[in-house]
Amino acid sequence: MNITEMLLTNVNSRPKKKIVPKGVVIHWTANERSGANATANRNYFNKPTTVASAHYIVDDKQIIRCLPEDEMGYHVGAQTYSQAALNKLSNYPNNCTIGIEMCVNADGSFAKMYEQTVALTADILKRHGWGVEHLWRHYDITGKNCPAFFVVNTTAQTYTGMPAKDAWTKFQQDVHRFLTAYPQKPQPDVDKCDVELTLTSTGKLIDDVSYVPIRMIAEAVGGAVEWEPSTQKVTVNGQEVSYVNDQGTAFAKTRELAALLGLQVEWDEPRKAVVLKK
Ligand SMILES: [Zn+2]
């Protein structure tokens, strides 16, 4: 298991409030579209207009850490909470839980994403000295149908081939088995990076120079993008950047934009991804 740390810089999703966690809350992204993977969800959380977050996002290829486990995220807020949550957690469970988002993007493998989530969950439980009784579905806390494949029978059948209750029980058993089967499992490796984008879907090559969409990249690291209609100028954090317009999206040279944002650029050939690091 490999965790990529891409901590959020959006203050609206990451209030930097310290918490003492008491449990883990399992979610799904509820986004079945192709490309709605861990990176895309993380970049969504980091948009300045988003007020939502989770500590981890898991797809079939990656586990992304968006928040340190001892910081509060916004993943389980509601008007009212279940009695069990009020008794065992608090009257505002965001302030004592670690959230995991499971991705169900159509171009990913549910089975591999599930396996990675089991490994991650077991790792968190182990580090906190907890058993599976510290696991919650979002549903158990607020009544929301999340993750739907552990709550709603039709969705559970589609993804797991069994009723929702059984699918949730199996998940808990799988985590428990992982916990007990690998009692000496070491801490996971952590890669640090700030933005990661897959070029095939989000960037373009023009004369062998890579270009990336300005707004997506800048907002993924908390930058402010503005477009001035009268002059047609695009600025990032107040500095002008040259761009090409492709069907209404402004693309800048990856290196030029990275320099503006103070990031290093790396090209990951096997995954066809541009990785930007601080
Ligand atoms: Zn949820």
Entry summary:
Residues 9-148 form the N-acetylmuramoyl-L-alanine amidase domain. The protein has 278 residues and is an alpha/beta fold. Helix content is 30%, strand content 25%.
What can you tell me about this protein's structure?
This is N-acetylmuramoyl-L-alanine amidase. Keywords: Cell wall biogenesis/degradation, Hydrolase. InterPro entries: Amidase/PGRP_sf, Amidase_domain, Cu_amine_oxidase-like_N, Mao_N_sf, NAMLAA_amidase_2. It catalyses: Hydrolyzes the link between N-acetylmuramoyl residues and L-amino acid residues in certain cell-wall glycopeptides. Its EC number is 3.5.1.28. The longest helix is centred in the middle third of the chain and has 19 residues, at 110-128. This protein has 2 domains: 2-190, Peptidoglycan recognition protein-like (Lysozyme-like, 3-Layer(aba) Sandwich), CATH 3.40.80; 193-277, 2-Layer Sandwich (Copper Amine Oxidase, Chain A, domain 1), CATH 3.30.457. The chain is globular, with a radius of gyration of 20 Å. The model has no long low-confidence stretch (mean pLDDT 89). The two termini are 23 Å apart. The strands form 4 sheets. The protein has a 7-stranded mixed beta sheet, sandwiched between helices. The chain has helices spanning 38-45, 83-88, 110-128, 138-142, 153-160, 164-181, 199-202, 214-220, 254-261, and strands at residues 2-5, 23-28, 56-58, 63-65, 97-102, 135-137, 189-192, 195-198, 204-206, 209-213, 225-228, 233-236, 239-241, 244-246, 249-253, 264-268, 273-277. 30% of the residues lie in helices and 25% in strands. A hairpin with a 2-residue loop joins β14 (244-246) and β15. The chain is an alpha/beta fold and 278 residues long. Bound molecules: zinc ion.
